[in-house]
Amino acid sequence: MSTVTFMPRAGRGASRTTDAPPALSRRQIALEKRIRRLTGMAIADFAMIQDGDRIMVCLSGGKDSYTLLDILLKIREVAPVRFELIAVNLDQKQPGFPDHVLPEYLTALGVPFHIETQDTYSIVKRVVPEGKTTCGLCSRLRRGILYRVADELGATKIALGHHRDDILETFFLNLFHGGKLKTMPPKLVSDDGRHMVIRPLAYVPERDIEKYAAMAGYPIIPCNLCGSQPNLKRAETKALLRTWEREHAGRVESAFRALSQVVPTHLLDPTLNDFVNLKADGAPHADGDTAFDEPPLADPADRRFDPADDEHD
């Protein structure tokens, strides 16, 4: 069962309401500019959006997805390509879910939206033992439903609100608990090969999103309505990253940068390197034994990690 509402798209540069928007402080302007810049860089670096795309923005009611929709709307106004946005929310029938919040918010915003209603809550509660986290099964069910909805709406891209910290947390969770070097890529094709998933906030630190959402006053819907136990390992990893940010300047940024500067020849995976047949053939190797060199310091001119971005104003 689903409810569908399509609002007329506001023209480029049109205001969201008939009232004049409140004046923004210098801090708000700087923060929005920083998030837009980082989002635009991620979109460009990973070729996330092309002319004519119809992008399904998955809106949960949390700070990340609200910020994603907001920033994509602002980028669309000045983008060199034209693309459509449609916000989609999955109402999973958790007890106490305020199903009026998102329709009212999106209607006032003038954004086309679709509310998909599926009672996955009952399925999860029936299958998962009491006291165990329901997040794994819930996310799998949600993913399948959203893929189907993307087909029905003719969406060419599915945009998720995962940010820099989500990507780093996933990397360390796989490293510490899964024995894999793996994380959330900014852009990927679904398992069935039919859907393109993008994460435009991939470069944006969570602390920026927290401040931006607080300033915007989004009508946040709590994510614990299902009564599920929290993902304790992810919470521990998040706390670890926050400690590093406080106590070791630059460590988190360096770890994130490492995800885009991989040297496969200096890892131990035999599927990446044919160690059995590796021979000293007298020909120079570009990477060679540079693993023994002193690691270079982070480049302060790196456009993703401008020191000014880390000022806590």
What does this molecule look like?
The chain is an alpha/beta fold. About 40% of the residues lie in helices and about 10% in strands. It has helices at about 25-45, 65-80, 100-110, 120-125, 135-155, 165-180, 205-215, 230-245, 250-260; strands at about 1-5, 55-60, 85-90, 115, 155-160, 185-190, 195-200. It has a seven-stranded mixed sheet with strand order 1-4-3-2-5-7-6, sandwiched between helices. Helix 1 (about 25-45) crosses helix 7 and helix 6 (about 165-180) crosses helix 8 (about 230-245).
Summarize the structure.
This protein has one domain: Rossmann fold. The chain has nine helices and seven strands; from the N terminus they run E-H-E-H-E-H-E-H-H-E-H-E-E-H-H-H. The chain has helices at 26-45, 63-78, 101-109, 120-127, 135-153, 164-178, 206-216, 232-247, 251-258; strands at residues 2-5, 54-58, 84-91, 113-117, 157-159, 187-189, 196-198.
